[in-house]
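B., you asked whether I could sanity-check this one before it goes into the benchmark set. Here's the sequence:
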Amino acid sequence: MKYRIKRLISQLIFLLSANLGFLGLKTGFCYPFFYCHSCPTATSACPLRALEESVYKGNTNWKYLFYPFMILGAVGSLTGRSVCGWACPIGLLQRGTSPIARQVKKSKFVKDHLSSIQQIDRLMRYAKYFILIGLIFFTSALIGFIFTDICPIGFLTGTIPTLLLYPGQFVPNPFFFIALVIFLLFLILIFTIERGWCRYVCPIGAILAPFNKIAPVHIDVDLSCCIHCNACTNVCPMAIDVPSMKRSPECILCGKCVDICPKDCITLRRR
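And here's what the prediction gave me:
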């Protein structure tokens, strides 16, 4: 069975497990992926909210700080950033928007400005680390909650379902319209850049990314049989130069490069 089929099955299972709250299943567990705790059917909590709580206005609560880091650290140590490709519901959403984003990539404008776009892309990949440090920790410690109040994923999986399920009962907070604008920008991002959220914005991806360097699960390329057809690089949703990536922090271990390699030079190793 190809990895794309296995991955789809895995993503659907995790999406279902994240929404068992309608059965009354609510836990204090933190998701090891991106999904909002304010979703009416959510089973668990958002790790980012716990991190915000841990440093809220300088009142450090080590329990809230270590708990999500222990979960994400354990998952990252074992599987690297594979959560982004195999479990995260927002990854599944972007899987659906990828065909449109790929068409945008083939447009004349992109081709005419490819060099400049690639330079901007390389710089923008650091944005998720600044978002993690700045909007999760610094603003929470000095000002208050910012990120989870304007988070587009919270708007998608929390605000919109609440509005639909409980019409007339929803009371918008002061950040509602800001969150709405950011949500619209999020939609533009994922429809124009394949895996744009994962590449540039996701703070959980920023936490998991360094673990790609040490995790036993990784993509391995046998350069001795590589014919440099670039099929793997062209199909990569994270726009990585696969043959030379050397355990790239950007790799989500989706296996698309493994499936497409005509010489079977690429493997998804588990050791």
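One thing to flag: The beta strands are 217-221, 266-270. Otherwise nothing jumped out at me.
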